[in-house]
C-alpha cells in the first residue's frame, strides 16, 4: 500500500487496509488571491470507516479552515474545497482523520 506522511511530529501514519488516501490536492502550491480555492480529493476503499473528517491545519496543529465531514458510504472518492484568501504564506497540512486513522499531506501557500 501507498504510504502518506508529513514532517509534522505525531501525525504521521502509513496507509493501511482501510483504503483511505489523499488522492489529490490542487493547486499545490496555491497562490493566494481573491477567490483562491484549495481542492482535496479523498479516495475511500470498501473497508473505510465512517465518521471521517478533513481539516486544514498549520504547522502547530491549529485548524485554519472549517472542518469538513465526509459522507458515510464506503468506496469511491469525495471532494472537499476551501476558500483560502485570508491565509498567510507558509506550509499547512491537509488532514483526514477518523476512528483509528490519520492521513496528512503538506500544502504550500504563497501570497
Q: Would you write up a description of this structure?
A:
By secondary structure, this protein is mainly β. It is built from no helices and 10 strands. Strands 4-10-9-6-7 form a 5-stranded mixed β-sheet, with no helix packed on it. Strand 6 and strand 7 form a beta hairpin. The N terminus is likely disordered.
Sheet with the most strands, sense and barrel status: 5 strands, mixed
Broad shape? elongated
Unreliable spans:
1-17
The proportion of residues in beta strands is over 45%
Count of separate DSSP helical elements: 0
Element order: H for helix, E for strand: EEEEEEEEEE
The rounded distance between the terminal residues' Cα atoms is 35 Å
Total strands: 10
User: Which structural category fits the helices and strands?
Assistant: mainly beta
Cα-based radius of gyration, to the nearest Å: 13 Å
Question: What integer is the average pLDDT?
Answer: 83
Q: Kindly report the spatial arrangement of strands forming the biggest sheet.
A: 4-10-9-6-7
**How much helical structure, as a percent, in the residues?**
under 10%
Keywords summarizing the entry:
111 residues; mainly beta; three-stranded antiparallel beta sheet
Q: Topology of this protein?
A:
Layout: E1 3-4, E2 13-14, E3 20-26, E4 30-31, E5 37-44, E6 53-57, E7 63-69, E8 76-83, E9 90-98, E10 101-110
Amino acid at each position: 500500500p501507498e504510504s502518506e506522511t508529513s514532517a509534522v511530529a505525531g501525525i504521521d501514519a502509513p496507509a493501511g487496509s482501510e483504503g483511505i488516501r489523499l488522492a489529490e490536492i490542487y493547486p499545490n502550491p496555491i497562490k493566494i488571491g481573491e477567490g483562491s480555492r484549495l481542492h482535496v480529493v479523498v479516495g475511500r476503499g470498501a473497508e473505510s470507516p465512517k465518521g471521517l473528517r478533513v481539516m486544514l491545519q498549520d504547522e502547530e496543529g491549529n485548524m485554519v479552515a472549517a472542518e469538513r465531514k465526509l459522507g458515510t458510504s464506503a468506496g469511491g472518492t469525495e471532494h472537499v474545497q476551501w476558500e483560502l484568501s485570508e491565509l498567510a504564506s507558509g506550509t499547512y497540512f491537509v488532514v483526514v482523520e477518523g476512528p483509528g486513522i490519520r492521513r496528512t499531506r503538506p500544502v504550500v501557500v504563497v501570497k
